[in-house]
Amino acid sequence: MSQRVTSSPGSSERAVRTDEHFFPGSHLAEIQMVIELEQVTKVYRTGAIAVAALRGVSLSIKSGEYVAIIGPSGSGKSTLMHILGCLDTPSSGTFRLAGEDVSSMSEAALATVRNRRIGFVFQQFNLLASVSAWQNVELPLTYAGVGRTERKDRAMTALAKVGLAGRVQHRPGELSGGQQQRVAVARALVTEPDLILADEPTGNLDSVSASDVLGLMDELHQAGRTLVLITHDIEVASAAGRVVGIRDGLMTENDNRDLENVR
Ligand code: ADP
Ligand code: MG
Q1: Is the CB of 73 under 6 A from ligand 1?
Q2: Could you tell me if residue 7 is inside a domain?
Q3: Whose CB among 58, 97, 119, 263 lies 3.0–4.6 Å from 196's, allowing a Cys bridge?
Q4: Alpha-helix residue ranges (DSSP H) falling in 72-224
C-alpha cells in the first residue's frame, strides 16, 4: 500500500469522502479519509521567541492505512501527533478528521473525539503506577461513562488481545517495559477507536520487546485499524504500509521507495 501524500487540495480522493457526521453514532470506518491535513502550520511562542514547528504540512490518510511518520529529533513529529490527536490546534491550515473540520469543533466535542475515537500510545507508556493493569485499561471507558461491569469486561478482553491475560492484576512496576507498553496498547484499543496514534512506541524498549509491540501494531492493522506511527527509527518505520518523512516542519517523502533519502 503506497499511497501518495496529497498535497493539492481538490484531489480526486476528496471526492470519495462522505460528509457523514462524525459523532455521535457515526462510524469512521465507513468514511474513506480519516485524516486530511492541508498546509498545516504550528508556531510556538515563548515570550519574544517564535518557533515554527510545522511549516505547511499536507497529508491524507485513509481508513485502514498504517502510516509511519519518520523524522529526526526536533523535526515536528510530536507537534504533528498532538494536532492529529486533537490535543493541540494548528496555527493555520486545515485539519479534517473523518471529514469534520477540527477547528470548528467545540472543546467539548474535541474531548469526545480524543476519548472515544482516538487511541494514544506514548513512548513513556503513561500508565498510572498505583493501579493494576486492568484498572489502567478501563480508564478511558470511565471517562466515556461506561458502567463498571462492562468496563472490567472490556479491559480484560483488551488485555487478552495483547497477550496479557495472565497479568491483569499486576501494577506497571511489576511488569517489564514491553508488557507495560502492551498495557498501553490495550488501553488505546479498549474504546474501539478508529485511529490509533503511537509516538515513538518502541523508543524505551529493548529490541525484543520493540518487535513484540510492532507485531501487535501489525495485528491491529490486519484487523482494519487506522494506525499512525511516529518514529525517528527507519527500521521501526518500515513496519508500516506507507512511510512519510518530516524534516524541519515539512513533509519530505511520499512513500517507501524514497525511504533511503530520509536517513
Ligand atoms: P520531534 O517530536 O520531532 O522531536 P517536536 O514536535 O517535539 O519535534 O518539536 C519541534 C520543534 O518545536 C522543536 O524545535 C521544539 O523545540 C519546538 N517545540 C516543541 N514543543 C514546543 C513548545 N511547547 N514550546 C516551544 N517550542 C516547542
Ligand atoms: Mg517527539
Answers
A1: yes
A2: no
A3: 119
A4: 77-84, 107-117, 133-143, 148-161, 177-189, 207-222
Q: Is residue 42 lining ligand 1, measured as CB closer than 6 Å?
A: no
Q: Ligand 1 within 6 A of 75 CB?
A: yes
Residue 161 counted as domain residue: yes
Cα 255 to middle of ligand 2, angstroms:
21
Mutational pocket test of ligand 1: of 43, 51, 75, the residue with most ligand atoms within 8 Å of the beta carbon: 51
**Do 213 and 245 contact (CB within 8 A), yes or no?**
no
Residue 145's domain comprises 12-262
The CATH number given to whatever domain includes residue 109 is 3.40.50.300
2 domain residue, yes or no: no
Quick one: which atom of ligand 1 is closest to the CA of 75? 3
Q: Is residue 6 part of a domain?
A: no
Cβ 44 under 6 angstroms from ligand 1:
yes
Q: What percent of the chain has pLDDT over 70?
A: 84
Number of domains in the chain: 1
CA distances from 63 to 59, 125, 193, 200, 224 (A): 13, 25, 12, 21, 8
Q: What is the pLDDT of residues 215-258, one digit of tens each?
A: 999 999 998 899 999 999 999 999 999 999 999 999 996 544 44
